[in-house]
């Protein structure tokens, strides 16, 4: 059996393949409730990560010609990213479970030899209580790193901490998939 | 409790074939690697599905060596290869993103301060799709080596960056392709971060005289393996 090709860092110059419109998943005429997801990426010194590529994938609503389901956004000089997309609904989990609405997020950057994977759920969503992933994380501070907070109408915010910060800020939960 | 309706998961990575997050010889990893254990997540529909890129929305850019009809400087190369899963099954109609420095070792990027000339006829971005048998191909310029500040007198070997999506979110891969015989490889912390020597060597393309075009360009072959699914669905 062959082995999967090894990963290497995206490096600091990946913007050669950047197309800023990719951060708007509604650009092909998607219909539904538009929301924005913003946040910042922060390193272990609490400095903004200004050269990252943040990618978003959602299995719901299903991707089609009007909705790619996938977006990519750079982090800016303040470490901030911003997506415009449609609000996801619940999707099946393994077994006969139901997963709370969420985005899958990948983080690529200089200093990451392979990308990091995390998720963004939505604060206040009743299904969060029974979501298989969220319920598997016992420590409330860690679990809360996966939950975006409301930031105005149809606006959500989540920060991604690559490491525990200098003032014991909690590292984001990253996933082994 | 597993269910027969569960999606078939992607295979786990083979040990030694992927780099660590914490690689002390690569300085940028120090403040950017997770210190907590990753949380294992059995694959759900979120991980087993992934984006499909319609060429109508994402038009191919199969030739990096020409901008507005003007040829870039440097050694023209044709790079091709086949994208398969671990069982050798081709991955058809999948997007391949490419980016690289020019022949002088300079990226067309405001952050690249290396004192080497920019080439207005080389932008450095490519995009192709595999055919129904998993083959891809593009034309470019052999990228130059360039200095970076990881350690004193650090130089990156010649390389082309690649981005792949494959057949689901869990198959996402970004990597770099290197050129055969490059003496900088054995000094490069990024290349050396992959523990298994055979896995490292598979990041080096091979000269391919079947693709080399007489009086035009050298050809190289770079095959890529993306994650595929477990062979048989688990019984419920």
Fold and architecture overview:
Chain A has 177 residues and is mostly beta strands. In chain A, strand 5 (91-92) and strand 6 (98-99) form a beta hairpin. Chain A has helices spanning 132-136, 140-144, and strands at residues 34-42, 53-57, 70-74, 80-86, 91-92, 98-99, 102-108, 116-122, 147-150, 155-157, 160-161, 175-176. Chain A is built from 2 helices and 12 strands, in the order ββββββββααββββ. In chain B, the strands form 4 sheets. In chain B, strands 4, 7, 12, 13 and 14 form a 5-stranded mixed β-sheet that branches. A 4-stranded antiparallel β-sheet of chain B has the order 6-5-10-11, with no helix packed on it. In chain B, strands 2-3 form a two-stranded antiparallel ribbon. Chain B starts with 38 loop residues before the first strand and ends in an 11-residue tail after the last strand. Classes of the chains: A mainly beta (177), B mainly beta (236).
């Amino acid at each position: 059996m062959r082995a999967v090709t090894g990963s290497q860092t995206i490096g600091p110059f990946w913007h050669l393949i950047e197309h800023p419109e990719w951060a708007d998943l509604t650009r092909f005429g998607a219909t539904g409730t538009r929301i924005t997801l913003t946040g910042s990426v922060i390193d272990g010194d609490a400095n903004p990560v200004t050269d990252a590529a943040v990618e978003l994938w959602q299995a719901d609503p299903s991707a089609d010609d009007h909705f790619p389901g996938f977006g990519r956004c750079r982090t800016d000089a303040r470490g901030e990213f911003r997506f415009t997309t449609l609000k996801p609904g619940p999707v099946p989990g393994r077994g006969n479970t139901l997963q709370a609405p969420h985005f899958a997020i990948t983080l690529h950057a200089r200093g990451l030899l392979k990308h990091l994977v995390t998720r963004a759920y939505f604060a206040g969503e009743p299904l969060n209580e029974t979501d298989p992933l969220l319920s598997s994380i016992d420590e409330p501070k860690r679990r809360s790193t996966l939950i975006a907070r409301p930031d105005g109408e149809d606006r959500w915010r989540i920060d991604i901490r690559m490491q525990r910060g200098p003032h014991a800020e909690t590292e984001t939960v990253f996933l082994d998939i | 409790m597993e269910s027969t309706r569960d999606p078939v998961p992607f295979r786990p990575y083979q040990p030694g074939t992927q780099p660590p997050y914490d690689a002390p010889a690569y300085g940028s990893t120090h403040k950017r690697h997770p210190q907590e254990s990753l949380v294992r997540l059995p694959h759900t529909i979120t991980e087993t599905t992934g984006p499909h890129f319609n060429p109508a929305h994402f038009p191919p850019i199969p030739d990096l060596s020409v901008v507005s009809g003007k040829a870039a400087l440097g050694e023209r190369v044709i790079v091709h290869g086949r994208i398969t899963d671990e069982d050798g099954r081709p991955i058809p109609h999948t997007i391949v993103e490419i980016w690289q420095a020019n022949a002088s070792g300079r990226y067309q990027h405001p952050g690249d301060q290396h004192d080497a000339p920019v080439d207005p006829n080389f932008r450095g971005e490519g995009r192709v799709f595999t055919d129904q048998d998993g083959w891809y191909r593009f034309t470019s310029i052999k990228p130059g080596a360039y200095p970076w500040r990881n350690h004193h007198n650090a130089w990156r070997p010649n390389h082309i960056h690649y981005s792949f999506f494959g057949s689901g979110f869990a198959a996402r891969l970004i990597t770099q392709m290197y050129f055969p015989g490059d003496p900088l490889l054995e000094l490069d912390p990024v290349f050396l971060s992959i523990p298994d020597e055979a896995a490292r060597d598979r990041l080096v393309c091979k000269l391919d005289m079947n693709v080399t075009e007489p009086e035009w360009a050298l050809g190289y072959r770079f095959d890529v393996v993306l994650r595929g699914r477990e062979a048989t669905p688990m019984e419920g």
